[in-house]
Design goal:
By secondary structure, the chain is an alpha+beta fold. It has 4 helices and 11 strands.
Amino acid sequence: MNIENRILYEDNHLIVINKLAGEIVQGDKTGDIPLIESVKSYLKEKYQKPGNVFCGLVHRIDRPVSGAVIFAKTSKALARMNELIKLRKISKKYIAVVEKEPAIAEQHLVNYLTRNEKLNKSFVSNKETTGAVIAELAYKVIEHLKNYTVLEVELLTGRHHQIRAQLAANGTIIKGDLKYGAKRSNKDGSISLHAYSITFEHPTTHQTIHIIAPLIGEMAHLINFLTQNKSTT
């Protein structure tokens, strides 16, 4: 699916893309083409821009996660969006399919996360330790499906693997997330987590922008299948 078909929002300052699970947002040691380079190529071709194209990454989501990613088309927009993130003024919500129903249907989780660079994993504790950062999210159950539960998760801080680590520590492991204890992988290597909603104040017009990212790929097929085979118990 090409970039043009996955544009959720675009104006002179911003472009928001519905990222596929498996895409990397920025370049890494794999050498795979990152989403940011694909966006640059799209902008260069569409607007026939000579030379280098500016494209600033506002935030990231993990490689096995799908959903909305914001890019800035100007340095001014990038600086203002970075400030909104710093002030926690960008609302980000996710859909997560988890292996076990949480003991509490709606909850605000506050933990400390410690990142292990070597393992590329974050570890949760309930007290502050050296190198730990505070992590906050809120979740609520929105659907009961056959063998799984669907959560809406509001991310209140942006930490490494935060949703994955906090939900797993809470007893609700994301489907397909082997790194955090899932029983089995998803066929496409994704995890069942999708960044579906972003709300923020536009950096220049100051209007409220609300963007919904439709489910795509394995996540869309999964939800459709599970809904059709929904448990009646």
